Amino acid sequence: MSVNAPTLLWFRLDLRLDDNPAMQAAIARGKPIIPVFIYDEDKDWPLGGATRWWLHHALADLQEQLSCHGLKLVLQSGDSAEVISDLVEKHEIGAVFWNRCYEPRTIARDSAIKQQLKSQTIEVESFNTSLLFEPWEIKNKTGNPFRVFTPFWKHCLAKSFPKTINCDLGATKVPRAWPDSEILDDWKLLPRISWDAEFYKFWKPTRKAGLNRLRQFVKDAVHDYGNGRDRPDWDGTSCLSPYLHFGQIGPREIYEALLGKVDLTKGGPRQYLSEIGWREFSYHILYHFPSVPTEPLRPEFEHFPWEPDDQLLKAWQKGQTGYPLVDAGMRQLYAIGWMHNRVRMNAGSILVKHLLQPWQDGARWFWDTLVDADLASNTQGWQWTAGCGADGAPYFRVFNPVLQGQRFDTEGDYVRRWVPELAKLPSQYIHQPWEAPDSVLAAADVKLCKTYPLPVVEHQQGRRRALDAYEKLKFFHKDKK
C-alpha cells in the first residue's frame, strides 16, 4: 500500500464540513481525502419525494463546500458495501471514515462493512456527529433503556454535553487522481412535475441558510418559544429539523449557539432544548427497539380495532376532512414539506382517533411528504399520537380540532393562508364553518359540500368512536391475561 494511501470519507446524513469528526479524523491522518456519497436507498424506507428534493440541494451545497478546499464530492449509486469495496481496490484506499447513522438496516450494513474492511487491514472508524449522546450510553438505574422521556432527559442533562469540533479545513490534501463520479442531476431526485414550487419560497437547503436560521432563532423567537411552538400563525419555531436530519447542522452546534446567550434553565430556551432532547429520545427508542417503525412499542396495541378506509385516508391526505385547522396543516405539508408541530398533533389525532386509521398509514404519508422525514422522530411522533409508544399520549386524549384552532389560531390567519376557500369567513366561524349562518357563508363565497366539505365525522361522534375502540382493546387485552 502506498505511503500516501488516500482516506475515503463517506458522507451520509452529515452533509457539512465543520463539527464533523469523520472529516477531522481524515484531515488528521494527513493523507489525501476522497469524499464520497453513495445513493443506496433503504428498501423498507425509500426516500420520499420531499426528502429527495432536499437531498438534491444539500448535496449540491456540499459540493460547493468541498470545492472551497480543493476537494470533489464523488457520487456513486448502488450497494454501499460493493461501492466501497470497489473504491478501496481501485484507488488503494488506506482508511475509511464515516459518521454513524442509527436506522436498523443501516446499523447492520455498516457493521458488516466495518468487519470486511478490518479483514483487509484497512483502517476504519466511525464517529458520532448527529446526536449529543450515543443511544447505548444512556441507561436507567437497572441498566436498561428508558421508555419515558422525562427521566431520560433528566439523566442526559446531568451529563456533560459534548463540544463542537473545529475541523482544520486548511490542512486538507487532494488526491492525484479522482474516482469516476456520477452526475447529481442524473439521479433525478427532483420531481418531474412542479409540485415543489412553494418549497423554493420557504426553504434554502444549504448549511449557510441553516446557520442563519439558527442565529435568528436564538436572537428572537427562542425567548417566547413556550408560546410560539403552539402558534401556527406565528413564526415562532426554529424550522431546523430538516437541517438536523441531513446533518447540515448538528445538535452540538445548536446547544453551543444557545449556551451563554440565553438561560437554558427556564422559559422558552429550556423548552426548546427539551425538543432537542425529544429527538435524542426518539433515537434512543429506535436503537433499542428497532421494530417500532412498523410495530407498536406497547404490544397490546397490535390488536387495536383499526378500521382502514382508503377514502377517509385520502380525505385526510388531501386536506379535505372538513376541519379547517387539520386541512390547513395537511395542505401546508404538501405545499412546503413541513407542518407546524401543534397542527401535526391535531392532524395525527384526527387520523388515528376520529377516523380510526392505522398510525402506520399516517407515518408513511408523512415519510413521503416531509422534508424533515426522520425515521426515529417520525415514528416516535406517530406512536405518541396513537398512544402505543414510549411516553405516548393516552389514547383517550382526543384533540378537539375546533377548540384547538380557536385557541392557537385565534384570528384564523393560519387557516386563511392554507385553506383560501375559507379566507373570507369571519374569525368566529373560520374553525367551524358549518355553524355560520347561510348569509355569512354566502358573503364569504363558501358553499358547504361544494367549495369546502363538512367534517368527515362530527367531533363528539369521532371521540366516542375512538373511546369505544379503546374499550374493545382493553377488553381484548384483559381476556388474554
From TrEMBL:
FAD binds at residues 225, 237-241, 272, 372-374. Pfam families: DNA_photolyase, FAD_binding_7. It catalyses: cyclobutadipyrimidine (in DNA) = 2 pyrimidine residues (in DNA). Binds 1 FAD per subunit. Belongs to the DNA photolyase family. GO terms for molecular function: deoxyribodipyrimidine photo-lyase activity; DNA binding; FAD binding. The keyword Lyase applies. This is Deoxyribodipyrimidine photo-lyase. Its cofactor is FAD; (6R)-5,10-methylene-5,6,7,8-tetrahydrofolate. Its EC number is 4.1.99.3. Residues 5-132 form the Photolyase/cryptochrome alpha/beta domain. GO terms for biological process: photoreactive repair. InterPro entries: Crypto/Photolyase_FAD-like_sf, Crypto/Photolyase_N_sf, Cryptochr/Photolyase_FAD-bd, Cryptochrome/DNA_photolyase_1, DNA_photolyase_1_CS_C, DNA_photolyase_N, Rossmann-like_a/b/a_fold. Keywords: Chromophore, FAD, Flavoprotein, Lyase. The lineage of its organism: Bacteria, Pseudomonadati, Verrucomicrobiota, Opitutia, Puniceicoccales.
